[in-house]
Amino acid sequence: xxxxxxxxxxxxxxxxxxxxxxxxxxxxxxxxxxxxxxxxxxxxxxxxxxxxxxxxxxxxxxxxxxxxxxxxxxxxxxxxxxxxxxxxxxxxxxxxxxxxxxxxxxxxxxxxxxxxxxxxxxxxxxxxxxxxxxxxxxxxxxxxxxxxxxxxxxxxxxxxxxxxxxxxxxxxxxxxxxxxxxxxxxxxxxxxxxxxxxxxxxxxxxxxxxxxxxxxxxxxxxxxxxxxxxxxxxxxxxxxxxxxxxxxxxxxxxxxxxxxxxxxxxxxxxxxxxxxxxxxxxxxxxxxxxxxxxxxxxxxxxxxxxxx
Length: 308
Known about the structure:
The protein is mostly helical. Helices cover 58% and strands 6% of the residues. Helix 1 packs parallel to helix 3, helix 2 packs across helix 3 and helix 11 packs across helix 12 (283-298).
């Protein structure tokens, strides 16, 4: 199967986080190997683009680029190696330059090598512009924090306002699509965190009650471990930001449900359908689950930069 640059970016963030918890140099070594794969193999310096997969590199995704830039920033914060910051900046510039649409939003997918926008599909959230893109746009805000360059500040604010205006329609979908959309909707919560202290954005985070209600209703038929993990993390970070007081009963329920997805080897099963575990472990949902339960069990406030 082709290598996923997005999942590699997530892995960098998670491995750096594990190193920060344990001090085990094996985690940092693995994180840096993955980060250098992104900077030296995956990144196309000639076309200035980060492909979705390599061999063949046929598409680039706005969302994936944001996750990759954040992964490289996590490696840079851990090492101060300018190689990681330099490519993170280049990826952020590509997001601004190549994905901007004439309508004022950002195209979700480009066809390579010409960087032409692929047709959007309203029935598929990953093929549409939407509030979930705010997590990817958070890379711009973190680039602004890292560099002080205002060029990264404004595009994040632009996606922030777009997401705030449109998030109310995101879950208006057929019932069979709701669980998958809850996963993407939680990306919206995560992307709000840089401004969670401001009342109008804090109010949007209170939609965690809606996600919890959907989870309760849908879980007997289909549940994803990553949705439980993302919702639990969002609650914790929103509480630490002073945005939404922690609903301890709901959080405890979500943590208990999430723990039941853990496999004997330590990973986390992707989901459960009709009461039966789905027989595979997704590296991203496993990372989300591991971080969510670590944060919940330790209850020690951390910076939003560690969010995977």
